[in-house]
Amino acid sequence: MKEFFRSTACRLVLVLCASAPFAPLSAAAFTPSGNEVADAFLAVLETDDGMVDSYGSVSEGGETVIIKDLLLKRKGDDTKSATIATITLRDGMVQSNGRLKLGSLSLSDLAATADDGGLAIGSFNATNLVLPTPEELNGNDGAPVVGPSYDTLEVLDATVSDGDGNKFDIGRLFTAIDEMDGDLPTAFRFAVDDLKIEASNLDGEAQKSLSDLGYESLTLSAEGQSRWDPEKETLEVKNFKLSGAEAGSFALNLNLGGVSRDVITKLGATEGDPEAAMGLVQGVSVQNISIRLDNSSLVERVLDMQAREAGMDRATLVQQLSAGLPMMVSILQNPAFQEKVVTAATSFLNDPVSLEVTVSPANPVPFAQIMGQAMMAPQTLPEVLAVDVVANSAN
Question: In Å, how far are 58, 72, 74, 246 from 51, measured between CA atoms?
């Protein structure tokens, strides 16, 4: 299922396809429609693993091309397939470099199924979309992989299921690329709304985990934005936030230096090779990081669950955890930082409002130095990185 999605259906969900390993076909397996825009779009969907099995019709009216009843299949495996009721391509043209440019791409009623899960999407819309050629998507001959570019992308009413009987609904997924540097995005935003986890849609183990926390359902949302400046070689992730009603929120902000065009370009070719990726980021440096948890009943629910399992009440559990904290953090071998951690953690356990960790060194610290310190003198890292831990501070 995963490989099929990566090689066919996920090309349609463009937020995923930029990282997928695609392989072009030497010739189209589908019957050409005779419409240049439609055939260029269908060619992008074909890979070594997946193919366009059939389509109902291709019609043209003005600057709009409509493909009806598309069927994608995995080669040699009829249990994996994807269907799309209607594909609408507006203001399309095949550029001189072979890329397909579209004013907008709209899909309705997409369904992908396999023996270990499925994906259904009510509607999908992308604006100002440029699809690289199949060869560029694959990065042939060692060339950098080129992903799609677009202004905005929105998916509505999606349902994802796995082979274990778990199902999740997503009301809306939105992404936007606000700026580009050649083929590379430099400013990006995203939001996920109404990710619903219902106990009734989970398998037994997952259902129990949710129920043990006192939830019959949980609705989550996520948002964030990033900006990469290729001239200054800086990368900023701003307000990456995951939140849930009657749970709380987790927020991440960070700034990195040394993020050059060369690093960004070569990272795209290191998928499945973590050692190569680690080698590329040795010169990347940490400028500042903040991680913040704002609690809204989730911590109490976790403490209550653990207290029940231990056969005690929450107050007794908190007292025991607080008493054991000094021993637990003694492994840090940094008395001043240990005291800071114990003080913040004790305050948070007794009154779980918020917990924040910040990293703000006076000067950027390269990853290579961080890794070296971690191996040779880990107790010095809190000072090198100027780490602070604070509980229940104002946001």
Answer: 17, 6, 6, 45
